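Chain A, query sequence.
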Amino acid sequence: METTCCVVGGGPAGVMLGFLLARSGVRVTVLEKHGDFLQDFRGDTVHPSTLDLFHQLGLLEDFLKLPHQQLTSIGAAFGDFSFRAADFSRVPGRAKFIALMPQWDLLDFLVKRAGQFPTFDLRMQHEGVTVIADGSRITGVEARKPDGTTLRIQASLVVACDGRHSTVRQAAQMEVREFGVPIDVLWFHISRQPGDPERALGNFNYGKALILINRGKYYQAGVIIRKGSFDEVKSHGIGEFRQAVSQVAPYLADRVSELHDWEQIKLLTVKINRLRQWYRPGLLCIGDAAHAMSPAWGVGINLAIQDATAAARILANPLLENQVTEEVLAAVQHRREFPTQVTQFLQVNVHRAMDRFLFQNPGPFQAPWPLKLAMSIPGVPHLTGRFVGLGVRPEQIRHSGERKVPAWTVCAVIAAAFAVTAVRILKNTGRKTMPAAVVPALRA
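Chain A, predicted structure.
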């Protein structure tokens, strides 16, 4: 068969790109290897940046009719120090919250809207297995159909959206840069009760970290472990794992018995990597296929949708005119590479700090004074809320000419405010290290 654009992968990047291109009149075929979208332990945090795109498309009202929880702020607990890490109440845009929604509902929603356009073609249970090349140019994809036979799809452009283990990226021999990550995540479900703490997304204590995502009647929970240590964790038995969970979050002690065996616990091998070049003639990679992200801050799904939005805006006219040059593909990478670099840089350093200060302190955790200091600065939760909620260089469906404050500027403001406050405290106390009198000094 022939199409104008073949999108390999029916995740957030692929479905969003397919929807936006079809909306522009481009003939697009999306390949998804599974029979449905019901894959658990996928990202389900829909950030204000994505919700704002839905508003621009006239979809936000219908989208928010789907079952979801609204997270207006993010809280965390470091030992006995609880604090509000991010507040979304002042984020620019229509939605001042994160919508917690299973990813399959998001994808079903977009597919139904995309299906209204005659140029949109979704092929479920079609797995892209390799690329078709004519010399150095990619001209299509070979896909495995449900009956095991092969379908050859000729396309003016192939877009790889098939995730961090991208088959298309590997077949095209794209060069990947790996950034070491010292953690993995063990995902599982555990029931939730009405009296549980609100907004306690992150819990850090006793050399462990527990992430809790509210899914209504249960939590999608994640225990952060050292990279490659899952076999060691299993060797200690499920009983010790249950004890570790209840030690970090004592209010879960009456529910850890729900974890009967290791089949209930899924390993996410965390990777942070990025292609040196996201394209070659006839091929473009976006989303996790171009840059695998850590689960930190739940930004992966939103970065993928931002990639798709920028790609659709840049590619639509060239695809309609059959003039997708390497310069056009390079423009997509140029637009989206900087936000990716900044986000990955911050994720890498957060994980290194976690490895140094958390895993190496197995006893009761004492929050470091820089954290307490930072959280005492007025406005910091709103600034971090803006960074987490909007990310770096949020996209628009169409260029409006509006200039937004870059997220790196927000980070610089946070760092400057932290430094100035620290200098003032140290000057007032006449000490070169954080004194025990920090709290009175801060109050003053």
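The first helix runs from residue 12 to 23. The mean pLDDT is 87.
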